[in-house]
Every structure is written in C-alpha cells, then in structure tokens.
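Subgroup meeting minutes
Present: P.N., E.W., G.H.
Scribe: E.W.

1. P.N. recapped why we're keeping a running log of single-chain structure predictions: easier to compare across weeks, and new members can see raw inputs and outputs side by side.
2. G.H. added today's entry (447 aa).
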Amino acid sequence: MDKSLKNNQSTIVYIQQTARKFLDRETSGGLLLIVATILALVLGNSQWADAYHHYLKDEFLFELSEHFTFGLTIEEWINDGLMAIFFLVAGMELKREILVGELSSFKKASMPLLGALGGMVVPALIFVSFNSGTENINGWGIPMATDIAYSLGIIGLLGKRVPAQLKIFLVALAIADDLGAILVIALFYSNEITWLYLVAGTGIFILLMLCNRFGVKNLFWYILGGVALWYCFLNSGVHPTIAGVLFAITIPVKPKLDSKLMKERTVRNVAELEKADIDTRDPMQDIRQREILKAMKKDTQNSRPPLLKLENALIDFNAFFIIPIFAIANAGVKLDVSFLEVVSGSLGLGILLGLAVGKVLGISLFAFIGERLGIAELHRSLSWRHIIGMGMIAGIGFTMSLFITNLAFADAELVKVSKISILIASLIAALGGIATLLFTKPKNEKP
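Output recorded in log:
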C-alpha cells in the first residue's frame, strides 16, 4: 500500500467517525427540535404570547468601553449570531463531505447533487408561478430549503425501516441543499452594501486563508478572526451568516502532527514509559510518567485535524442548543389564520405546494433523469419508492425556510402567513414521507 495512503488512513477514519457522530446527533437533535417547535407554538398562542414576543425584542448590550457599546435584540442575537455558528457547522460539514464523504467524487455526488438541484429549482418555479407580479415574489427562496435536523429526526423515528444508505443520501442532499440556500441568501437576500465593512471583512477572510496556507494550526487565531469577520459582515449589508461559511473555508484540514510523525513519537514515548518504574509506581508518584503521558496526550490532540476538532466541539451545541433556540424564537406564530385562508392566497399556496409537492417532484425527477442519462446511480439497497419517501420528508423546510422568511419580508402579516404555510407544508411532508417509507420494504424482502 502507498505510504502516503497509510499515513492518511487514520485521518480518514477519524473523518468518517465524525460523519457517523453527526448523523446520530442530528437525528436526536431533530427530535428535540420537534419539542422546541411545539413549545414555541404553545407560547405564541397562550396568555404569555405578548411577553414572549416582547422578550425577543429586548436589547442585549456589550459595553467594552465608554466609547464602544455593541448591542442587538435577543431575536437578532439568535438569527444573526447563533445562526452564523449554524452556518459555520454547515460549512464544515460540506467541506468534510467534499473531502471524504458522499460529495468526494462525481460518482458519489451526482445523485444527491441532482436531487438537491431539482429540490430547489422545482419548488421555486412553483412559487413563482403563483406569485409572479405580486408583492410576495421576494419569498421565492422560502420553499427551496430542506431542514436537515428535522428530516433526520423524522427518519430516525422509522428505525430499521429506513436503509442506512437512504439516511446518507438525505444528509448529502441536505448539505448540497444548504449550499444552494447559502448562495441564495448571499446573492438575493442581502441588504444595501456598506463597502468599508465589506472590504474589511474580505481582508480578514484573505488573512485567515493566508494563515491556513502558511501552516497556522492554532484554532484560537482562526476563532478570533472569525468573530471579526462576522462583525464586519453584520455591518456590511451581506447577511452575517455568510461569514460562518467563509470562516469554515479557512479552517485547516491537515493536522499539526501527521500520522507518520505521530507514530514515531508514540513509539519513542512508549519506550520512555517502559523505562519508568511502572510496576511499583503510578503517575501520581512518578513525575517522569506524568511528563510522558502529558506529551502523549498533547501529540494525540495535535494529530487531530483542526477542522474536525472544531466541528466536533460545535456539533452538540448546534444540534441541541442553536437549532432548538432558533425554533423557539421563530416558530411561535399565532395560529389565527385558517388552512382555507392559507391555501386561498398565492403566498400560502406557493409555499405549501412548493415544499409539500415541489420538493419530492424535483428530487425524484432530477434523480431519475440523472440515472437515465447515465450520470447518476441509485444505490443497490434503495428503490425509487425510497427516494420518493425521502423526497417528501425533504419537504420539511422549517429552519431554513423560516430563516429566509425573515429575510424576504418586513410586513408582519406576510411573515405570519409564510410561517403558518411552512408549518402546514412541513407537517404534510413529514406525514406523507413517513407513510410512504413505512410501506416500502427493503429491496431484499419480497413484497
């Protein structure tokens, strides 16, 4: 086996372990998200609704000096601050998938990429067909998004009824979908540009890329630069969550200590440990043992790729705090608009059909065309009914759809109708996907 391949094996295994951890956490995080959504709806339709909305508008200030005070409302801290970390994690996931995951080769990536493309284009076209020429047209991006946490949470409820490869397909599709949503936000949902801050942010991004290029591995400097990058984008007119994605691009992949050097140092440290009096004394009694063990621990930390180290540090925070908090802050819409009122208007109908119908239609159709053209291949463990069921579940737009709603509309009534439409569409998509997958047997079983 090639030496360079051997040296990279441990890193690849670590990346794959990170992918599995991500899948498990996102599944359980999706279940927590369901609870958070219910809590938000209860708060938004209870006697505490006014207090709930008033609290989100309270300002939270940082006073660094008498000349510099920085503050945002609680809602802004969540939507512009915490969601920047959400996009940072999404960016790192995308980078990992491109390196060794389901997007690492054309053969692996073609099917989920085509599905993601169809799942964005068809819903947007459906929305535009209902809202062209109206004041609602700015919401065309709302039905394009897939909520990866919610989708995996629903799939997780089905257990072994869902082939493992379908979950991987959904993750790859949702990550590609996130990339599309990021581009849509950056290009179409940013405000008037303040060039001074944008140039400063670009300069910080270039500086971080140079740090990566010249071998800086200490995450402290990247995090410090990432915070400055976020602040510049917050004031630039480009949505600050884009800073999270740019930050992810700059984080180093190669560890401080490669596998070959790690092996050499480990062998040397083990030899030194064998010379110590390990039979009669423990590390508490022997300072030499403590020094060797400390060196081995440091080497182990330095052998971990910085990208994966930061991703692992943030996965739980993202899945179990950021996304549920976002749901609590944004899903608490007052349900005083009936289903008939939603579907009788072009805005609600465009979102509803875009998510509940457009997603599954676009994903399935583009994936099918890709296979027929020979540029994509359906995994042998999956049937087209699996893809249709998964495509329905991908119609759960929720987090990203709510996020784009806040960017698309300033009118409170349009925001309310949009959010109710997203909730209804996501419920229909979830129920349709569950029903389809429950009655879809694995390919190795007879009907």
